[in-house]
Amino acid sequence: MSKKIYVVGIGPGEYEQMSIKAANVLKSCDTIIGYTVYVDLVKEHFAGKEFMTTPMRKEVDRCVLAFEEAMKDKTVAMICSGDAGVYGMTGLMYEIGEKYPEVEVEVVCGTTAAISGAGVLGAPLIHDFAVISLSDLLTPWEKIEKRLLCASEADLSIVLYNPSSKKRHDYLQKACDLMMKHKSPETVCGTVINIGREGEKGTVMTLKELRDTQVDMFTTVFIGNSQTKNINGKMVTPRGYKNV
Question: Which residues are within 8 A (CB) of 28 and not within 5 positions of it... i.e. 6 or more apart?
């Protein structure tokens, strides 16, 4: 019997926003493994499955657990919110999978917050954009700072993941100050909280206003480029087909 792990992006959280392939894979699996919050999002839709969880910062343990369960000839799904290949578990699964050559790994893509959040705000990512995480848990702040400055200087629209936490309560403010070295304070921006979940809300504002906005880890932040407009409360970045 072949040993198989699917690394599955479940999208923003709402079952209706999960891909048909992801839902079918989870229905076919014996065991679903993930961070506790993500497992809670899917549990009600896949009754009868074996669920296993680990808390945040136990990612390596979670991956090892998935491979150990697969070695018992179970078909296993490792789930991540959004897309598993964007700030998700895919890379780590392949790294740890080197020790388990008997186990096949297949990736099932999902919709990352940059895409699902953009749909809530309007059309902020119609042209080139950068996605940057403000979490310095795995990346030094100096490197994050350079990425913010370079992306701003290049006039890219920017999506910020992990914009704030208890220990990083002022990181969005710091990021806005850096971006305003190259972007106008009037640049059109937006935030979306709880994408695809209860309490979803999108708000459009200026970069200057964004600087003093309270956000949390369930917020995705969008900063426009120099052409981005506020059209009837929607954030719209022209593609440039013509000047309108």
Answer: 75
